[in-house]
Amino acid sequence: MAESTARPSSWDALLDGQSAEVRAASRALESLIRDELPDIVVEFDPGNRLLAFGRSMRMRDLLFALIPHARWVNLQLPDGAVLPDPGALIEGTGKRIRHVKVRSAAAATDPKVRAIVRAQIALGAPGS
């Protein structure tokens, strides 16, 4: 399914334009993050076509972003360059920000992905 360039009105509207696999992976990642940090602040950014998660929406408090693509969803990690990655799932060349490409709900529930989420929470902000 091709990615639309139109600005979506909501996270649900954005996911409606994605493949079933990307929708399922996105929902599973969203659930995982909310499960690990129930009080997390969540905000949809239509301009960047992403769902942001943090202790607040201040840049320094952001912990994750979900960015759907045609065949996967990126789990953005602000501290990805320094997180432990025993499963070699973290990709990218950014000085600090890296991502995990998640192609299915099953991949989103992999214990290695949960470990990365937990590591980002532990490193990302005080009070976790």
Q: Could you name the key traits of this structure?
A:
128 residues; alpha+beta; six-stranded antiparallel sheet; 6 strands; globular
**SS-derived structural category:** alpha+beta
Mean pLDDT equals 92
- Content of β-strand: 15-25%
Q: Looking across the biggest beta sheet, what order are the strands in?
A: 1-2-3-4-6-5
Number of distinct beta strands: 6
Polypeptide structure, described:
Strand 1 and strand 2 form a beta hairpin. The protein is globular, with a radius of gyration of 14 Å. Strands 1-2-3-4-6-5 form a 6-stranded antiparallel β-sheet. The chain starts with 10 loop residues before the first helix and ends with a helix. It has 4 helices and 6 strands; from the N terminus they run ααββββββαα. The protein has 128 residues and is α+β, with helices and mostly antiparallel strands. It has helices at residues 11-16, 20-36, 105-108, 111-124, and strands at 41-45, 50-54, 62-68, 73-77, 90-91, 98-102.
Could you give the topology of this structure?
Elements: H1 11-16, H2 20-36, E1 41-45, E2 50-54, E3 62-68, E4 73-77, E5 90-91, E6 98-102, H3 105-108, H4 111-124
Antiparallel strand pairs: 1-2, 2-3, 3-4, 4-6, 5-6
